[in-house]
Specification:
The chain has helices at about 25-45, 50-55, 55-80, 90-115, 120-130, 135-145, 155-190. The protein has about 200 residues and is mostly helical. The chain has one domain. The protein starts with about 20 loop residues before the first helix and ends in a 7-residue tail after the last helix.
Length: about 200
């Protein structure tokens, strides 16, 4: 909310003053900040089993809002911002990778839904939303590190640039693996007739 109304000298932007005059970076930043709120909201609705069962149309609509936003607005804006990340090459690689994977996983989730491969669709959405949540986990890691370890600010930034999303993606892969293993176990279980 500190960026509302349009404000270029608060919060994160205090350390980005060398880029604020670059039109495409500034536009990408504000588009990313404002449009990401819709991505978070729409994403949270996608994992509600109740919503999926009771109102598939709303599930589909929120899914399209999520995918359109990531693929056409926030993902590309994040990619532009990634090329200007503080902390040198390491941070730039981290944020560009995050944006590229976010766009890829979201695009694949949409493709799989359209092909009615709902297992793969769900798996890609789990990966995509894990990366969406990096907006939150990055800040949590930053808070945790700065309040427990004394490190130079740019070292913290380089660290959270990677921690903010790689651990989320690892958790997503564990969830996908466990879900698949459970499904396979259920398929292999003997039926009543076989007993």
């Amino acid at each position: 909310m500190q960026y509302v109304p349009y404000n270029t000298d608060v919060g994160f932007l205090r350390i980005k003053q060398q880029y604020i005059s670059i039109d495409h970076w500034r536009i990408a930043f504000f588009v990313h900040v404002y449009a990401s709120l819709w991505v978070l909201f729409a994403g949270f609705t996608q994992f509600s089993k109740t919503l999926l069962k009771r109102n598939r149309t709303l599930h589909r609509t929120m899914g399209y809002i999520y995918c359109t936003n990531v693929l056409l607005i926030t993902g590309p804006a994040g990619l532009i911002m990634g090329f200007y990340a503080n902390g040198g090459l390491s941070s730039r690689i981290a944020f560009v990778s995050l944006a590229a994977l976010w766009i890829y996983f979201t695009g694949m989730a949409l493709v799989k839904a359209r092909k009615r491969d709902f297992t793969a669709h769900r798996n890609y959405m789990i990966r995509s939303f894990a990366l969406t949540l990096s907006a939150i986990t990055l800040r949590a890691w930053k808070y945790g590190i700065t309040n427990s370890i004394e490190l130079p600010p740019m070292d913290v930034y380089r660290t959270v640039a990677w921690l903010g999303w790689t651990l989320n993606l690892a958790v997503a892969e564990i969830l996908i693996y466990k879900r698949q293993r459970t499904r396979n176990h259920i398929k292999k279980a003997p039926t009543g007739a076989e007993l």
